Amino acid sequence: MKHLDTYRNQEVVVLGLAKSGVQVAKVLHQAGAVVTVNDKKEREQCPEASELEALGISVICGGHPDDLIHPGVKLLVKNPGIPYSVPPVQRALELEIDVITEVEVAYHLCEAPIIGITGSNGKTTTTTWVGKMLEAAGLNPIVAGNIGTPLSEAAASASENNWMVVELSSFQLKGTQEFHPKVACLLNLAETHLDYHGGMEDYIASKAKLFANQDSQDIAVINWDDPVCRQLVPYLKARLLPFSMTERLQEGLYADPPYVPDVEDDIERSIVYRDGAGVVYPIISIQDIGIPGRFNVENALASCAIAISAGARPDQLSAPLSAFHGVEHRLEFVDTLNGIAYYNNSKATNAKATRMALESFKQPIVLIAGGLDRGTDYLELVPALQAQVKAVVLLGQTRNKLVSAAQQAGLKAIELVDNGEDAADALTEAVHKAAALAEEGDVVLLSPACASWDMFSSYEERGRIFKQAVHNL
């Protein structure tokens, strides 16, 4: 896209009235563009419309008019979740109109250097952790993006004295052109969102756009243990700062001594940083990290690498590493009832996230799983189900696929819940079934391995209902 002032008196369409759409419409309107906002929802479902119209912004609800996109439109900014297959986007592409997401607009607005964080799992935990680390180091972070505050809203108030710490999804990154983070981090890559991207090739390419505009003055933080992430290394133009759980790196962040893949042990480990001169800086004992799970050690390594890239000293990182106790819906402890511990991991929207959660516990687990069917077979879960799980309670579109995985793992205690007409009632029933299967010393874990949209409006709604059901046991 062009810089914002080039859209003065030019027609711009914003597709989707979510938080980011509302904010980007305001930004473009303030830049002098002639803005039309369109949402397929009916007017009564678009409470933001009146606010925008009061500013002089046109709002069209209830569908996509045939003449919405025409040769006079200079830019289409779409909500990240809207597929590229919808008619307005297809028409814009036919007319060679730029199709971008709000992140691209925000980049041109933002005066602060940007830290971009993406990956299939761990984005929110890592983004939050980095914000706390930079705050402890006095580096004035602003945390925004997919984590909550729209980036364009945060960018409007940012200065050169801030660091903009941004969680980014593949949906957002796919719609970028010139977006250029000073520090870019790719946490991991797993099979997910294939219904949107059409395959892993487009999904990986969308994630890789995070690095596309970096140069030798920038830093790329890469998970050295993830083979798909490693494949991108030859194409990076930025300075590489890797992190690893399983290897002592010549430069980067790593666990010491390294973990042996797929082997549980009680060895005491630390997170350390080795700089380019070979000097090693111990940061924290892993047992002192504030949230459990091997995958959170990986998130901690990434967070440290990002914070050091932004100018934090290694000795400033141990306090935020130990003080942070996690983000809601990410392996969140809910309660202990009758000696059974309940954990909410509703954000686990793919099989890899659930597998990592299962591997975080040594106690027997009763797993509640299931949700939107995106074409995954869930066989990746079989080893973790064999090793960690005593029983499963399954619901949602994928419950029969998960039954197959559980049977292959040799599980005998498999309970199904009828999805019914009320999703809250179905999940509450699942909690009661899990509680009946569990015994003192066990863990009941909601970790669906699926998105929520077959039954719930969001993973947050699913997690809140789970927690309420636990509290009502």
TrEMBL record:
It catalyses: UDP-N-acetyl-alpha-D-muramoyl-L-alanine + D-glutamate + ATP = UDP-N-acetyl-alpha-D-muramoyl-L-alanyl-D-glutamate + ADP + phosphate + H(+). The keyword Cytoplasm applies. ATP binds at residues 119-125. It comes from the Bacteria. GO terms for molecular function: UDP-N-acetylmuramoylalanine-D-glutamate ligase activity. It is found in: Cytoplasm. Its EC number is 6.3.2.9. Residues 329-450 form the Mur ligase C-terminal domain. Keywords: ATP-binding, Cell cycle, Cell division, Cell shape, Cell wall biogenesis/degradation, Cytoplasm, Ligase, Nucleotide-binding, Peptidoglycan synthesis. The keyword Cell cycle applies. PANTHER family: UDP-N-ACETYLMURAMOYLALANINE--D-GLUTAMATE LIGASE (PTHR43692). Belongs to the MurCDEF family. This is UDP-N-acetylmuramoylalanine--D-glutamate ligase. It comes from Paenibacillus lacisoli.
